[in-house]
Give the backbone structure.
Amino acid sequence: MSTHSLPILYSFRRCPYAIRARLGLTAAKIKVELREIILRNKPKAMLELSPKGTVPVLWLEDKTVIDESLDIAKWALAKHDPLNLLKASTDTSKMQALISENDGPFKHHLDRTKYANRYLDEPPQDNRAQASAFLQKLNARLNDNEFLFGNSLSLADITIAPFVRQFSNIDRTWFDEQPWPHLIRWLDNFLKSPLFHSVMQKYPAWQEGDEITLFPDRSQIKTPNGLIPDQQGPQPN
């Protein structure tokens, strides 16, 4: 394998795990070489690094491979955490437990709601109800706070929000009709934030021999008025 002067990130724009990793890297202001992939045509170079074939995959300059999204975010923020995301709450055990519940039971039921045709023996309404129970828990946490662990953005917010976004996109009309107003407010603020917009730019699929694409590249963040979106900006598709 060749040497490289920057970490290389294999990513897929809409994948919530990849979004999580890009959020962590962007919050940490760590520049990487981005290689956007197509899931049905995964590059051999990525599979050689991580045979499980999922994104994100981060290949460091010392040839260390990190292929779990939470580990990538934590690695980046351990290097530089200007938003204080790792220390926004002193109760790190509760934060980790909430992230684990998101990544375990909630994602299990999310997938079986979103891809119900793949799980024909499981009623999608039952899985939606199970997923909704977790979202009600988030709503309760947000009752008196702007974010999941108080009034400062934390690791929990940037690692859980991409999955809540994925669930809401299954049926946004239904989602907005549910009795979780604090969750809706939190999600909408996240989706309109400069941080989220900065990781959702579209890039062509990477091919061997392509010129390097640097990420994050704030010069590519465009809205109709030419500025990074504020809280009123439209959210990316």
